[in-house]
Write a structure and sequence with these properties.
The protein is α+β, with helices and mostly antiparallel strands. Helices cover 35% and strands 25% of the residues. The strands form 4 sheets. The protein has a 5-stranded antiparallel β-sheet. Strands 11-12-13-14 form a 4-stranded antiparallel β-sheet, with helices on both faces. The longest helix is centred in the last third of the chain and has 21 residues. The chain is globular. The chain starts with a strand and ends with a helix.
């Protein structure tokens, strides 16, 4: 690991100011991705800004039909929250399926969302629920936030502070996971929301995406058979040692069907 300057800040404002000062400044949330890339010398930041002591970035709040989760809230906290389990059980289940116990107790929602790994679970949850990402500067709809592999709409000096989720009528997340890492080879989040049906897919391609054909079919009839015969093109999908593109395309349909079944079970 290369040398770097370490900064522990006390507020979002202080973090934002420090973020634009260095040569290559990185924010440290849970560190479950960043520290690993630094150890492998794939990342060489000049400065690290530790967000761990900023209390305003942590916590879970339910107000009416909205669940708001602070950016520094750990995956394990989301999974164990009775408020989240009651309002959006699919989101609590998703958080509980992330990686292993160590990562769930260190990794944060904001860090995962900002990193936008193509196999991460949270992007599917945010896109599937039509969430809103709150930063120190603005609010960004999930549909506009995820731009591609490790790429988001975040601008220089912008820090995720919280994510707000509208409570759906019903939802579920099912993934076909890598047996070692538990990353999603393909994961599908299905939700019936106040604004309509949403089907979001992670792991299958370089970026999380929605499946309009499935959403249309589920709007007509929310049932497993509605998506069972909808095939997703394998063009542009990931192909690696874990699964080829055509197999991932097949898994999208299978996982979507299982997600609908799970949503119906409640």
């Amino acid at each position: 690991m290369y040398s770097f300057n370490y900064n522990r800040v006390k507020s979002v404002a202080e973090a934002a100011a420090a973020l634009v000062k260095g040569e290559d400044v990185k924010l440290l949330a849970g560190g479950q991705s960043l520290i690993a890339t630094m150890k492998l010398r794939l990342s060489k930041p000049s400065d690290l800004i530790d967000l761990g002591t900023i209390s305003e970035l942590r916590g879970i709040k339910v107000e009416g039909s909205t669940v708001t989760i602070g950016a520094m809230t750990r995956h394990a906290e989301v999974a164990a929250s009775q408020e989240v389990k009651k309002a959006i059980p699919a989101l609590a289940s998703l958080a509980g399926s992330i990686a292993d116990r160590q990562i769930r107790n260190m990794g944060t929602m904001g860090g995962s969302v900002a990193h936008n790994d193509p196999s991460a679970d949270y992007p599917a949850g945010l896109l599937g629920l039509g969430a809103t990402i709150q930063t120190n500067k603005r609010k960004i709809a999930a549909d506009d936030f995820f731009k591609g592999m490790f790429e988001t709409a975040l601008e220089n000096g912008e820090i995720i502070t919280a994510v707000s989720f509208p409570v759906p009528k019903r939802a579920a997340y099912i993934k076909f996971k890598n047996p070692a890492s538990r990353y999603a080879i393909v994961g599908v989040f299905v939700a019936e929301t106040a604004s309509g049906m949403r089907v979001a897919v992670t792991g299958a391609s370089p970026g999380v995406f929605r499946v309009p054909e499935m959403e249309k079919a589920l709007a007509a009839k929310f049932a497993p058979e509605s998506v069972a015969n909808i095939k997703v093109s394998d063009k542009g999908l990931n192909s690696d040692i874990h699964a080829k593109a055509d197999y991932r395309a097949h898994l999208v349909t299978v996982m979507a069907k299982r997600a609908v079944e799970a949503a119906l079970r409640g």
